[in-house]
Amino acid sequence: MKLEQIDTPAALIDIARMQKNIARMQGHMNTLGVAFRPHVKTTKCIDVVRAQIAAGARGITVSTLKEAEAFYAAGVDDILYAVSIAPSKLPRALALRRQGCNLKLVVDNPTAAAAIAAFGDQHGASFEVWIEVDTDGHRSGITPEHESLLDVGRILHENGMTVGGVMTHAGSSYELDTAEALAALAEQERAGCVRAAQRLREAGIACPEVSVGSTPTALAAAQLEGVTEVRAGVYVLFDLVMHNIGVCSLEDIALSVLATVIGHQADKGWAILDAGWMAMSRDRGTSNQAHDFGYGQPCLLNGTPLAGYVVSGANQEHGILSSADEGSRADSQDITQRFPIGMKLRILPNHACSTGAQFPEYHAVTPDGHSVQWMRFHGW
Amino acid sequence: MKLEQIDTPAALIDIARMQKNIARMQGHMNTLGVAFRPHVKTTKCIDVVRAQIAAGARGITVSTLKEAEAFYAAGVDDILYAVSIAPSKLPRALALRRQGCNLKLVVDNPTAAAAIAAFGDQHGASFEVWIEVDTDGHRSGITPEHESLLDVGRILHENGMTVGGVMTHAGSSYELDTAEALAALAEQERAGCVRAAQRLREAGIACPEVSVGSTPTALAAAQLEGVTEVRAGVYVLFDLVMHNIGVCSLEDIALSVLATVIGHQADKGWAILDAGWMAMSRDRGTSNQAHDFGYGQPCLLNGTPLAGYVVSGANQEHGILSSADEGSRADSQDITQRFPIGMKLRILPNHACSTGAQFPEYHAVTPDGHSVQWMRFHGW
User: Fold this and answer.
1) Contact criterion met (CB < 8 Å) for B354 and A92
2) How many CB pairs under 8 A join A and B?
3) Among A134, A190, A349, B198, which has the highest number of CB atoms less than 10 A from its own CB?
4) What is the complex's ipTM, to 2 decimals?
5) β strands within A169-318, DSSP E
């Protein structure tokens, strides 16, 4: 299908940009001498993941058991479920392992570790479990020097479970925007996770894997001594938040939302689009960054960004395109000429993970302007 | 299935609350002597819509052609597509009408009206079109006294299309929070839409229907003289935004997200949930209201709100439950006792339309605690 024939709103992936992003990250990992395990929560799309694996990725990271089930069914068997497991989800995890999936679980507390051990004992099963380490205080995990790190390790190890490794995610990297700060956080992430592995090994627990990552720290890391693998997700498509952090340009962003102009409020300098928050998502991740893109950056169909314009407001199925400068909107009465009814635009999103989730499928666009559908799934 | 057996996160609908909300709105419409056309964009779920129709609704409102197609296939034939149509969508609209669907389109500008007329002429088809009226300046539509109102009416009328009515949506009601202000806006919405119909009729265009509505103005309206029907969507489930506006209590909110405690950061007073923004949505609709509920209001499994706690932060699959009072979080080290690993909670959402869209299905819960799955669809 040609771009002009796609009904709007639609989520477009620029295949050439995506392949460039994949090659960039995998090349950097190869240079650093570590394995790369992409986080597939960004796209939940087997076509994208096949491209990541073809470029050299080793296994995948998932955020839900549904992703694990879907990607295992599609032929991927090395899967890290990177959210501390709720004990009630263990039967689903066991079913996957019994089908042959090399599924690794994550915990960060003794209660869940004991629940895994008890469930494993009850069902004659041994789970591989990785321990989540907190290296930046932004969310979950055990700090490297905390006593409960060894408690969790021992509960698993002494009850027949395999401590496969330690993993951390320096999600606070999303709050930074200089190369120096990102490099420093990447080193903090590396050092903390390596230290946690060292403590476990000194306590007689093998802990072979040391897994770190977020897109900004992965790209900023200068050396990863002691690390065995890196995880990152959003790098595959990038977005406006990543642009503001400084790890990609607007021209690297591979996801856009195709939209049509359906109306105007000329007195206010508004063009109304058929892409509202249901298409763009409610993610306003750039609102606290140096450059606030509203609900997205409009571009021409050929991808050229329309400097000075943003999607400044959104209802469920209506987006408001206007001057980025609030003060000059009322002077923009030429909006009806510049953006006539029926004109199609591409909107770069704040956050590729949340915008993608609004769509059942991507339209993957080749350099000659043709597209194919790549399905994605949602739910848990 | 019993509530305790549902895997988390899950979207729950309390059927008793939903039926009460439906009866309240339909009863109010009956008292006012107007028809009621629910906006099904909130749930995109045929089971919910059947309950609305059973209570007396006449036809439905949709926000996408996919909704129109799905609900027509499920047996609903009186459908208002309440977004100004992009000319490129006319072939899908025509296909629906040729199948027998009584689909009504909406426009608010001469260009789109001319495109409908030209397309209808080209295909030997007559569309029923309603003209969108702007009664509060918040989004789309033509103001009642604007000259282009009659231009649009004449383009349609003189080219064989049927001007079925005028419609308006006072979406600025979401910014109010007093009964007086809502009643005043309901009257403004009514009067503006009735005036637009009067101008069209005086110009010789029949315009039989006068359609108004948003959940807050529908509930606040004291009289609707000249109006033939009302539209509203979120009233069926309600949410925290509607609570803050003052049109429902917490006990009326029929949608909640079932979540499990999966970790803690005791030093910070955090319990970590397996419901992040992928489950709650990124909607922060209460952030600009008098009571900011963060990403949601936690409740016990029986529905009792846990006063003083909110979901204060969210990543994709992690929610942070903490004291609503930021200053007292670090003193809440009893968080691990109060919210132990594995505990299940129900989180009331900011916005039922956006939270529901994150799930492929609802679990509809009966008063005795059993549930059945009600499917919903997404995409365009």
Assistant:
1) no
2) 153
3) A349
4) 0.97
5) 209-212, 229-230, 255-265, 270-273, 297-299, 309-314
Element (H, E) at A345: strand A344-348
- Number of residues assigned to chain A: 380
| CA-derived radius of gyration, chain A | 22
Question: CB-CB: which of A10, A86, A274 is closest to B86?
Answer: A274
Q: Do A88 and B342 touch (CB under 8 A)?
A: yes
Nearest to A264 among B89, B109, B379 (CB): B109
Q: What's A212's domain CATH number?
A: 3.20.20.10
Find the helix packing angle between A90-98 and A110-123, rounded to 10°.
50
In chain A, which residues have their Cβ closer than 8 Å to the Cβ of B114? Answer: none
H helix runs in A124-173, sequence order = 147-157
B263 and B370 in a single domain? The answer is yes
Q: Is residue A62 part of a domain?
A: yes
Domain CATH code at residue B287: 2.40.37.20
Nearest to A263 among B41, B140, B281 (CB): B140
- In tens, the pLDDT along A208-255 reads 999 999 999 999 999 999 999 999 999 999 999 999 999 999 999 999
Query: How do residues A121-179 score in pLDDT, each as one tens digit?
Result: 999 999 999 999 999 999 999 999 999 999 999 999 999 999 999 999 999 999 999 99
Query: Which of B205, B234, B263 is the last residue in one of the domains?
Result: B234
Straight-line distance from the first to the last Cα atom of chain B, in angstroms, rounded to the nearest whole number: 31
Q: Count of CB atoms within 10 A of residue A75's CB?
A: 10
Q: Specify the DSSP class assigned to residue B294.
A: B
Residue B135, token pair as written in the block: 């009664």
Residue where a domain terminates, one of A200, A233, A266: A233
Distance to chain B for A211, nearest Cα, Å: 19
Cα dihedral A21→A23→A26→A31 (10° resolution) = -120
Mutate to test the interface with B, among A265, A301, A355 (most CBs of B within 10 A): A265
Question: Is A84 in the B-facing interface, judged by CB distances under 8 Å?
Answer: yes
- Give chain A positions within 8 Å (CB) of B87: 341-342
Nearest CB to B380 within list A9, A171, A380:
A9
- Looking at chain A from residue 167 to 226, which residues have their Cβ under 8 Å from any Cβ of chain B? 171
Taking a C-beta distance cutoff of 8 angstroms, is the pair A22, A51 a contact?
A: yes
Phi, then psi, of B362 in degrees rounded to 5: -100, 150
B9 touches chain A (CB under 8 A): yes
CA distances from B183 to A135, B189, B209, B212 (A): 53, 10, 22, 14
Containing domain of residue A280, as a range?
254-375
B58 and B180 co-located in one domain: yes
Which of B277, B243, B272 has the alpha carbon at shortest distance from B257? B277
Q: Could you identify the residue written with the tokens 């050092």? A: A191
Written in H, E and C, the secondary structure of A180-210 is HHHHHHHHHHHHHHHHHHHHHHHCCCCCCEE
pLDDT value at position A68?
Answer: 98
Which among A83, A340, A378 has CB closest to B274? A83
3-state helix, strand, coil in chain A (%, to 5): 40, 25, 35
The Cα angle at residue A235 between residues A355 and A256, in degrees rounded to 5 = 35
Q: Which residues pair with B165 in a beta bridge?
A: B130, B209
Strand partners of residue A361 = A375
Q: Per the CB < 8 Å rule, is A83 touching B340?
A: no
Which residue stretches of chain B have pLDDT < 70? Answer: 330-333
Q: Dump pLDDT digits (tens) for B127-152.
A: 999 999 999 999 999 999 999 999 99
- A353 touching B (Cβ < 8 Å): yes
Q: Are residues B178 and B289 in the same domain?
A: no
**B353–A87 C-beta distance less than 8 A:** no
Residues B56 and B127 in one domain: yes
